């Protein structure tokens, strides 16, 4: 009887420990591009599973909270349904910021973000990072951004004191040096030649105008070099990018920079610009960049399609 009681007590202790561990390390469901677009339609102000959990405290294994930033016209809800849960399941404290709201944001019920003046968006990022650091007690953050979200933090780092607070900046198809949009900007902004404001400005997307190749914003951002000492930079880009054109304009120059072309790793990867937040190999590269950052890392390749990413 004593033996049975002891076995029962041991089983109860093991079960209690398992329950405790499960509570301490919840498993978050990893979504797809379809999950993201559904979230945008249903609740654009929502956070993906595991993102913006303000009670999270960084571990010794992952001391830097990760801040996720969407691209132009997008928000946290539709961009990070895959990477947010992946990082949270790995033990990171993960946060997301939908920045750059403007009048169009209100008109669309919050479904369109990252369209405001980029300098103001960088100021919003500075405030958000301060909130994350105070909440977690961390000294620095890692930032992962897609498109404008991978470029805008360089404004924060270079001009708004962010260099001391950013450990890594990882960009998925960032608009680092702007875009020609395969000539579309030249077409839709042709009215500037007759003295009228650019169409993209009239459309209430200052961030669009500022991301055009040759803009005064990009000239100032690039003056003196792409990088700031003390920050590590990683760029992950696809040759099929139809938004950041030419695709090589995403890449950065300078010390502590790693530029990755997806098709050098996975030649059959068909992910375009829109698919990048949901492309499996690209997200594996992000996780590796955040740590342990193995030299010569090669992701597992699979079926990756335009717009949808990995299925």
Care to describe what's here?
With 311 residues, the chain is an alpha/beta fold. Helices cover 37% and strands 11% of the residues. The chain contains 13 helices and 8 strands. The strands form 2 sheets. A 6-stranded parallel β-sheet has the order 2-1-3-4-5-6, with helices on both faces. Helix 6 crosses helix 7 (148-159). The radius of gyration is 21 Å and the shape is globular.
In terms of topology, how is this protein built?
Blueprint lengths: L1 H23 L8 H10 L23 E4 L6 H4 L3 H7 L4 E3 L6 H5 L10 H19 L4 E6 L1 H12 L6 E7 L11 H5 L10 H4 L3 H5 L5 H7 L9 E6 L19 E5 H4 L14 H11 L13 E2 L3 E2 L1
Parallel strand pairs: 1-2, 1-3, 3-4, 4-5, 5-6
Antiparallel strand pairs: 7-8
Helix pairs in contact: 6-7
* Outline type: globular
CATH class category name: Alpha Beta
CATH architecture: 3-Layer(aba) Sandwich
- Count of domain modules: 1
Helix count?
13
Biggest sheet features: 6 strands, parallel
Unreliable segments (pLDDT under 50, ≥5 consecutive)?
A: 1-23, 186-200
Which class of secondary structure composition applies to the elements?
Answer: alpha/beta
Mean pLDDT figure: 88
Assembly state here? single chain
């Amino acid at each position: 009887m004593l033996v049975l009681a002891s076995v029962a007590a041991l089983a109860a202790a093991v079960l209690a420990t398992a329950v405790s561990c499960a509570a301490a390390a919840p498993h978050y469901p990893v979504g797809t591009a379809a999950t993201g677009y559904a979230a945008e339609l249903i609740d654009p102000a929502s956070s993906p599973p595991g993102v913006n959990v303000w009670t999270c405290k960084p571990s010794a294994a992952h001391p830097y909270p990760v801040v996720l930033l969407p691209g132009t016209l997008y928000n946290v809800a539709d961009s990070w349904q895959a990477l947010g849960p992946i990082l949270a399941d790995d033990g990171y404290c993960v946060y997301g910021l939908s920045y750059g709201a403007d009048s169009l944001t209100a008109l669309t019920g919050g479904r369109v973000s990252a369209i405001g003046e980029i300098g103001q968006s960088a100021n919003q990022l500075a405030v958000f990072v301060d909130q994350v650091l105070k909440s977690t007690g961390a000294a620095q953050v890692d930032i992962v951004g897609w498109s404008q979200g991978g470029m805008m933090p360089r404004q924060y780092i270079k001009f708004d004191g962010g260099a001391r607070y950013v450990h890594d900046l990882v960009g998925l198809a960032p608009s680092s040096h702007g875009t020609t949009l395969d000539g579309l900007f030249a077409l839709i902004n042709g009215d500037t030649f007759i003295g009228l404001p650019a169409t993209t400005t009239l459309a209430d997307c200052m961030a669009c105008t500022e991301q055009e190749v040759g803009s005064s914003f990009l000239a100032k951002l690039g003056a003196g070099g792409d990088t700031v000492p003390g920050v590590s930079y990683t760029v992950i880009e696809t040759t099929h990018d139809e938004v950041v054109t030419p695709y090589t304009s995403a890449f950065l120059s300078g010390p502590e920079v790693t530029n990755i072309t997806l098709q050098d790793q996975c030649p059959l990867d068909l992910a375009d610009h829109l698919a990048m937040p949901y492309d499996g190999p690209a997200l594996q590269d992000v996780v590796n960049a955040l740590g342990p950052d193995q030299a010569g890392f090669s992701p597992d390749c699979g079926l990756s399609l335009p717009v949808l990413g990995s299925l």
